[in-house]
Amino acid sequence: PEVLADMPSLEILFLPGLGLTSVPSFLAKCPQLRMLGVRNNQLETINAQHLPRSLEWLIAANNQLCAIPHVANVQQVRKLMLSHNRLTEKALEPVAGIACLEMLRVASNLLERFPPQLARHPRLAWVAVGGNPFAEAALQRRLAAAPSAVDFGEVSLGEKLGSGAGATVYLADWRGKQVAVKLWSSQLFSDGSAQGELGVNRVAAQPGHQSLVGVLGVFEQPQPGMILELLEGAIAAASPPSFATVTRDALRKDGGKGPSIS
């Protein structure tokens, strides 16, 4: 309702699953609005002239987006969530003009390649592109030489260690040693799909890298999952991003948990 335009202090607004076919133009009149969520609607375009220049965080996943006209209007956007839409390389190119962009999730769209302009963006630090044609083609080539899946029947699950948006991690026993096991509970999430992430981890398992958690095996039944090395005694370095930090984990100095880092 247009009454929202009469709320000058409105900062956060979520409008999921309402069947929206366009973004209301009166949102441009909300001078303090910095976070807008319009996921799971029926949007084919988002006219950025209908958005306030104060916007820092736009969540528009799970629509039918094929264009974002006038995107240069939202120069303050730092976090842009566009996964599970219909954007092509040409449609995504103008996003490179958002000066403050730090995170771009554009998994499961129709990208033939990642726009070179975005690859050169000076502040962009976090990108999700799984499930796009160019990424899937590269993944399938690498999977041909990846290790085979292991038998989940060899795994004995223990206590829950933690969970995220699409998966849960458990303590487990596997082939006589303690490990961590990650089980995907959702098929689709902001970084793509369970099958896509499973495939990436199959590729990363060999040869692996000392800076990555070791992937010991993957399985697809009874649900997608993988077996990881157990990091004994590990503690979180920070808390998840907050509304204030947007794309960055919240360190102790930002009010998050974790060790002091100087």
How does this structure look, described?
The protein has 262 residues and is of the alpha/beta class. It has four helices and 13 strands. The strands form three sheets. A six-stranded parallel beta sheet has the order 1-2-3-4-5-6, with no helix packed on it. Strands 7-8-9-13-12 form a five-stranded antiparallel beta sheet, covered by helices on one side.
Number of helices: 4
List unreliable stretches of 5+ residues.
Answer: none
Order of helices and strands: EEEEHEHEHEEEEEHEE
Describe the main β-sheet briefly.
6 strands, parallel
Strand order of the largest sheet: 1-2-3-4-5-6
Strand content: 15-25%
Provide the helix percentage.
Answer: 10-25%
Count the beta strands.
13
- Gyration radius, in Å: 20 Å
Key features?
six-stranded parallel sheet; 4 helices; alpha/beta; 262 residues
Brief summary of the model shown:
By secondary structure, the chain is of the alpha/beta class. The chain contains 4 helices and 13 strands.
Give me the secondary-structure topology.
Elements: E1 12-14, E2 35-37, E3 57-59, E4 79-81, H1 89-92, E5 103-105, H2 116-119, E6 126-128, H3 133-143, E7 155-163, E8 167-174, E9 177-184, E10 188-189, E11 192-193, H4 194-204, E12 215-219, E13 225-229
Parallel strand pairs: 1-2, 2-3, 3-4, 4-5, 5-6
Antiparallel strand pairs: 7-8, 8-9, 9-13, 10-11, 12-13
Helix pairs in contact: 3-4
